[in-house]
Write a structure and sequence with these properties.
With 153 residues, this protein is an alpha+beta fold. Helices cover 60% and strands 22% of the residues. The chain is elongated.
Length: 153
């Protein structure tokens, strides 16, 4: 014999189905959210890559030395104007390392060079020289001068 029809069973089935649909929609939202977050990170890292160029001439740096240069450039990028494009060149010639950093932005162009027989001495020398230039840019007198130059142009 068949069981009698029960409306409660239909309602429970609908609620269960709606709950599954809601859970799958939530999972899909999380998936879309994670995907968009990943794409945003890729876009930001691509923009960061476009902002920084590093070139080595006359030698191939070790992974540790590349990491060292990247950390120096990262510190510089944090202090430089947001729109800055940073170009780093390090060369080895006659057992002497020479480093050059160019920073270009709407605020101005900055340039520093240094040389040393020791690779790890270049970072502090270059950063120190660029920081002096960037500090001059940030000084109140410099900002007032730039504002007046822009107003007159």
């Amino acid at each position: 014999m068949s069981e009698p029809y029960n409306r409660l069973d239909d309602r429970q089935a609908e609620e269960k189905s709606a709950s599954k649909l809601k859970d799958s929609q939530t999972a899909q939202d999380y998936s879309v959210s994670a995907r968009s977050e990943s794409e945003r990170f890729k876009a930001e890292s691509h923009r960061e890559h476009d902002r920084v160029q590093t070139h080595f001439h006359g030698f191939s740096p070790s992974e540790a030395n590349r990491f060292y240069v990247d950390s120096i450039v990262q510190r510089l990028a944090e202090e430089a104007p947001r729109d800055a494009v940073i170009r780093v060149e390090i060369s080895l010639h006659d057992h002497v390392f020479r480093g050059m950093i160019h920073v270009r932005s709407h605020s101005g162009r900055f340039f520093a060079t240094a040389s040393s027989a020791h690779f790890h001495d270049l970072g502090p020398l270059l950063l120190g020289r660029l920081r002096k230039q960037l500090d001059r840019l940030r000084s109140p007198r410099s900002r007032a001068r730039q504002t007046s130059l822009r107003a007159g142009a």
